[in-house]
Each structure stands twice: as C-alpha cells, then as structure tokens.
Automatic annotation (TrEMBL), chain A:
InterPro entries, per database record: ABC_transp_permease
UniProt entry keywords in alphabetical sequence: Cell membrane, Membrane, Transmembrane, Transmembrane helix
Species this protein is from: Actinotalea fermentans
Sequence intervals crossing the membrane: 27-51, 63-86, 106-125, 137-156, 176-198, 229-249, 307-325
GO terms under cellular component: plasma membrane
Protein name, per record: Ribose ABC transporter permease
TrEMBL record, chain B:
Main subcellular localisation: membrane
Entry protein name: Monosaccharide-transporting ATPase
Membrane-spanning ranges: 24-43, 63-85, 105-128, 135-153, 173-192, 223-244, 250-270, 277-299, 305-324
Topological relation to the membrane, as annotated: Multi-pass membrane protein
This protein's record includes keyword Transmembrane: yes
Top-level taxon of origin: Bacteria
Organism: Actinotalea fermentans
Record CDD domains: TM_PBP1_transp_AraH_like
Amino acid sequence: MSTVIHREVSVVADRSVGWAAVVRDPIVIAGVVTVALVVVGELVSPGFAGWGQIVNMLRVASFLGVVAAGQTIVILSGGGGIDLSVGKVATFAAIVGSRIMQGDDAGVAAGIVVPLLVCAVIGLVNGLGVTMLRIPPFVMTLGMTGVVHGLIMVYTNGRADGRAAPALTTLVNGKIVLGLPGVLFLWVAIAILVTWLLRRTTFGWRLFAVGANTQAAELSGVPVRRTVILAYVAGSVFAGLGGLLLVGYTESVMLNLADDYTMPAIAAVIIGGTLAAGGVGGYLGTAVGAVTLTVLTSLLTTLNIGSAWRTIVNGVVLVALLSFYGRQKRLRA
Amino acid sequence: MTDTVNRPADRLAELVEGVRHARMSTWMVVALLAVAVATNAAVQDNFFTPYSMTSTTATLVPLVLVALAQAVVVIGGGIDLSIGASVTVASVTAVVVMDGQESNLLAGAAVAVAVGAGCGLVNGLVIALLRLQPIIVTFATASVFSGAALLVLPTPGGSVPASLARGYRETMLGLPAGAWLLLAVLGLWFLLARTRLVRHVYAVGGDPAASYASLVAVPRVQILSYVLCGALGGLAAIALLANSGSGDPFVGLGMTLDSVAAVVIGGIALTGGRGSGIGAALGAVTLALIENSIFFAGVPTNYRPLVSGLVIIAALALSALTMTDRRRRR
C-alpha cells in the first residue's frame, strides 16, 4: 500500500518543485491525514467532529504534545538521540508534585518547581551518561527508566498518595477563555516557547548544528557535549511538565500515570517530520503529530476496534506516513 | 575533538580516552561476567547445585538467543526494536499449533521459526526496499506484531507437549539441557560467523557504500540479516515455551530492551560492523545474572528496581567506555 502512495508522490514531485515541496512537507501530510481522520470519523459516527469532541481530543493531545516537546529536542540532537525514559520521568514528576501539593493551593509553587528540578537532574544524568560515559542514548535512557522506576518504588513504598492542587486543576481543566480548557492555551504557549528556543536562540542553532553533523559542529567551535547534555535536560523537564499537567487533569496520581507516553511521544516526533537521525525538524510538526495520533486513537475507539487491531493500525500508519518522507538516499548516488 | 582541551568536561574525556586500550571491550564483558558469576555464587548459596543450574540455564537460553538475534542486525548497521514482539507472536502461534499434542511438536517448532523469520522478512523488506530508518520501522512493526500476537492468543493460556517441557529440564552427562543448548547456541554462532552472509553483514554494517561498491548486494544482505534475526527469535520463542509450558501474549515485552542492553554490554558497537555474537551472548548472561544476584542478595523489594537499574547503567558504562573507537561516527 505504501509503495503505491509513494509512487503518486514521486509523480507529483516531478511536476513542479514548489508544489512538491508543499505536498511532501511532513507537517502538511500529517495535517491532511488528521483532517481526513476527523472527516472519516464524522461520516461513520456523526458527532465525532463536534466542537466538544474536538476540544476534548485536543486536550488529550496536549499532554502527549508537551511530553513530546522534550523528545523532539532530544531526537534533534542526533547521534541516535532518543529518550526512552520520558514516560517514567513524567510519572515521577506527577508523583512528587502531588505529594508536595497534597491537594492544597499553598503547595502549588513548590509542587511544580521541585518536580521539575528533580527532572532536570535526571536529564542531566542522562546527558552525562550519553556524552561522558559514551553509553548509546537508547540504552542509557532505558537504564534510566529502570532507575526512575526504582526511585518511584523507594519514594512511594509502592503506594502513590497526594493530590493535585485545585489551582493546577483549574489551570488545566478550567474553561478560561471561549470555553476552552486552560491546558490548550498552555500548550500553545509551550509550542511558541519551544519553537523560539529552537529557531531563535544560540542553544537552538547549536542543537541543529550538532544534530546535522557532530564533527562539523565540534570543529566550528560548538560546545557539543554541553549542547547534548542540555538537550537531555530539556527532554526530562518537558516530560515532567507533561506529567504535572496530566496529574492536574486526573487530580489523583497513579504509580504508572504517564508510563505509556514514551512510545507515542516518539511516534509524534517522527510523524511530525523530525528526522530520527537528528538535525532536521521542529516542534510544530510534533504538535501536529500528537494530534494525529490522538485523533487516530479516538477514531479506532469510536469504531469499537479492539486494542489488538488498534496497535496494529498504529504501527501500519506510522510506517505508511514515514514512507512519504522518511526515506533515505539510495546507495547508487 | 583534540583541539579543545581547556574545558573541564573535555579534560575529563581526555583522561577517559587515555585509560582505554585496544580491544578492551572484548575482555571487559568477560570480566563483568566473572564478577556477576562470583556475586551470584556469593549471595546464592545453592548457585552451583544441579537444581539451581537447571533453572538458571533454562531462563538464560531464550535471552541469549534474542541477544544473538539482535547482534546480527546491529552488526549489520541496523537495530530491531520488534524482536520482543516477534518472539511473542512466534511463541503464541506455535502454542496454538501445538495445542498440547505430542504429534504437533515439530510442526509447532517449525511454525515458531517460520513466523519469526516472517516478521524479520517484513522488517527487512520495509527497511531495505523503502529505505526507512531501522529504528523507526521496527518500532512501528513492534506494535503490529504485538497486536497480531493478541489476535492469535488474546489471554495467556494453551499448553506445549509435555515432552518439550520435560526434555528442557533433563540432565545429560551431568549438565542440564539448558547448558547444552547454550553451548549449541554458541556453536551455532561459530558456524554462522563463517558464512558468507554474516561476513557480508559485517561489511554492510561497517560501510554500506563501500560494500555496495565491492559488489555486495546490500539490500539483499540487509533483508537476510533481519530474516536471520527473526528466525533466531523463533528459536528463542521455542525455548520460552519449553521453559514456561504455556503461551503468553505479553511474554516478549521486556526482551527487546534486554537484547539491546546485552548487545552493548557485549561490546558490539551500535554503529555497526564491529563486535561478535559471543559478546552479545555473554552480555545477555551477565545481565540475567545481575538481576538474579539482586534478587538473592536480600535487597528490600522496593529498592530492587533502583539497585538493578544503577548496576546495569554501570555495566553499560564500563562496556561503552572500553569500546575501541576507530571511527567516531555519530
């Protein structure tokens, strides 16, 4: 199926360069797929594209979108950069945060700052492991998943307690403007912040330089190690932020609250057109990718498709989307 | 890399650089293994008794096979994040085919290997022909295969022929069947390493462009390396079934990550072209023994995941730091 689709794209690509660039832009493809999914959903189950439904899907997507922001930065850093610990880190942040807050507004500031600092330390260790100890990111962050799981067990004795502060819950769930939940505005703010970080700051420029070609960046005087370490710190901090927002949504915390966010976060980044090899991509695509995945999941749920088929469809869609724009050069140049 | 030694970070790296020697990673895994064995012997009184050896080796066989499977594709410059899911779908299909009947034993085993190889073929075709990145393709096919496993066997159940489970716990010439199988697996690697396919896998992993220029059929080698990986996963599925006696659609959940960790501890470069299956096998054994010794060392239950995580990171760091670094290709 995917080969056929690709052939059509190549034909379009031959016709005109400008048009082809738009059609082959991952963000455009992911956006079109998302709209198509919403239309299909409305056709098979009227009400799927209702205003309330769409707002709800966006709200669910926002937690994934925030977690995936950090993943985007880590993957952009290249060198096989990937953070498999984001789900556990998000869970840990939610657990620490809700224990500090105890459902009381007095603890809201500490309940947000302390978990994020903890996450920054975890990210720092990830970054040091990858750069100084030369552990491949995949296994370093995997090992960190085990360590954070261990920290959670030690910290909670196997039983999570505490609650999100009402202020946090209002911020996430409360209808602040136009009847939209506050978390959507937060997500837009975070999207602008991350995009600014990537496109307009020294860190962002260095990140792309390192991701595209580590050696060239190093020879050009870019502090490669510091940049990569900062990328992992950002990865964990955004994961923690996502976890805190999630606990604001659910109010009470569970021991595996955000564990399942790791894989969709990676998928969202890839669907959004960020190269797994690093150096190319951005946050807008990831945000669209998070929405695509959420809409796909809702559609499959609406269609009463069992979880087995749902995971199969998720995998096939990822490969199909990737075959539009993730292809590498031929060896025969 | 050498022109900026004024930052403390770089100075530390220089120091680390100086500590490393050629081919240190090969003996590092042996040293780690020796430490793991010694620790186990110290914390588990009956570690060397026949009963304990039987159960330890019985759990090791599938892990070693999966590590070997991962080693093949990693040496070829790829990675297989779907190996755990492939093992799962192979094992549940086999258990459905076997259905506890002695007469279906061989058919079930053949199905396990065929399903594993089939999963590998799907991965190989998509990676080589569509030219997509292995890490993402196998990440995606992992969900396809684990979904398929749930369709074949929605809940844990089914049974294997009694002879398979019994034979797996048999003792021959003083050694448990698991130990013989481990030796057989190492023998299998010695044979494989001498085939043209695996030599080409090394070449492709080392430098695909140069291999292409040297008339190595790169896509074919890539596809076959994933098929071989999947087939080894099928063998691991049989060993899992023999060990547990029944099917489980979630059995391979942690195996992918364990296999990659084993490969790294075993001194195989994730950049491809270097390392050996023996290293991966030793890495898998080390990893399993670490978990085992933490269980027997009397670490409080809540502290166990933390301790094992820290020890595994330390083992990874030791292996990664001693890896010779001829080409730093990031």
